[in-house]
Design brief:
Number of strands: 12
CATH architecture: 4-Layer Sandwich
Radius of gyration: 28 Å
Mean pLDDT: 90
Helix content: 40-55%
Structural class: alpha/beta
CATH class: Alpha Beta
CATH superfamily: Ribonuclease Z/Hydroxyacylglutathione hydrolase-like
Strand content: 15-25%
Low-confidence stretches: 1-25
Bound molecules: zinc ion
Number of helices: 11
Shape: elongated
Distance between the termini: 86 Å
Number of domains: 1
Length: about 350
């Protein structure tokens, strides 16, 4: 129950805070960090923001919460008086899209993978509070798109069913900076939003896809945490794969979710390195992985059960046939004698 309530808190944190705030203009603590060339990371209350400053203007990735956006806009203005022309949402969560309406108001064009817009629209329909229509991205893509801006190609690509079902990563090809969105929590257990299409396997595949385009010198802006490297990304892939395998083994050995969540040996090497000190505790993470393993095994188990019943039926039938043969009196056999004439 503890982890369920924790997950609910994270859920609320991720999705609704930006839309329930009324105290816009509240001062938040922000930090603008140079990543490489003219690419910066802005840290504040929500997910890490990526920024490219240059002669064409400003290119932005994510915009945190509605109540922090004024502060963020001020920070950007201090660095450049050019307009923020384009903004990419890495996924729909409120700590990455909450500032959309305020950005749109200044003329910024918002882009996202198509599922991000769909999810935001769904939320708007469900919410009792009126959410401005301007929060929606105005241009969507299914797989990828490229910007040619501030002297370099900026490649935006979708990774399937990773943190959510609408994740996009953004790669600045010349500056060699990658923004991963929440598919990568640097050095922490990630939140995988299974309710909205996220899977651990998708995270691993998405990060592997990213490794194909980046190199050992790439600087990586994670969704949450500090700037990372190629090696940090590899470490995360290893962590996810290893934990999944260990949970899988325990699942096969009939351990329950509660038992697995309490185990210390599965994650010890990561717990010792502070992976459980972020939004997601070790226990919450193990529960998430366990649910995914159980889900992955579901079809296999349903088929195994069907096959077991089919085998039983066959064996019974075989037994019945055998029984009938022994019960029935043998018909008189017409033995063909050697003297018979054909
Ligand atoms: Zn998120």
């Amino acid at each position: 129950m503890f982890s369920r309530s924790l997950l609910s808190i994270v859920f609320l944190f991720c999705f609704f805070t930006s839309f329930s705030q009324t105290d816009t203009g509240k001062k938040i603590n922000t930090k603008l960090i140079k990543v490489n060339n003219d690419i910066y990371m802005l840290q504040g209350k929500g997910g890490n923001i990526g920024l490219s400053f240059g002669s064409n203007g400003i290119f932005m990735i994510d915009d945190q919460y509605a109540d922090g956006i004024e502060q963020i806009q001020e920070d950007i203005k201090k660095k450049s008086d050019k307009p923020v022309r384009f903004l990419v949402n890495t996924h729909f969560h409120g700590d990455h899209t909450g500032g959309n309406a305020a950005m749109a108001e200044t003329g910024t064009v918002i882009f996202s993978q198509e599922n991000v817009r769909n999810r935001l629209q769904e939320m708007m329909q469900k919410e009792t509070k009126k959410i401005p229509l301007e929060n929606l991205p105005v241009i969507t893509f299914s797989e990828d798109l490229s910007f040619y801006f501030n002297g370099e190609k900026i490649y935006v690509f979708h990774v399937h069913n990773a943190h959510t079902d609408g994740d996009a990563m953004v790669y600045f090809t010349d500056s060699n900076v990658l923004h991963t969105g929440d598919v990568f929590f640097n050095g922490k257990y990630p939140f995988i939003d299974a309710e909205n299409g996220g899977t651990l396997k998708g995270c691993v595949e998405g990060l592997e896809k990213a490794l194909l385009i980046i190199n050992e010198d790439t600087k990586i802006i994670p969704g949450h945490g500090e700037v990372g490297t190629y090696k940090d990304l590899q470490k995360t892939i290893d962590m996810l794969s290893i934990v999944y395998k260990r949970v899988f083994t325990n699942y096969i050995n009939k351990k329950t979710e509660d038992e697995v969540a309490k185990m210390t040996d599965i994650t010890k090497q990561y717990d010792d390195n502070g992976y459980g000190s972020g939004f997601i505790s070790k226990e919450a993470f193990l529960r998430m992985v366990y649910k995914e393993v159980a889900n992955d095994r579901k079809d296999i188990e349903i088929n195994a059960e069907k096959n077991r019943k089919a085998r039983e039926k066959m064996e019974k039938m075989k037994e019945q046939i055998k029984q009938q043969k022994t019960d029935q009196p043998k018909p008189a056999q017409n033995v063909k004698g050697s003297n018979d004439i054909d």
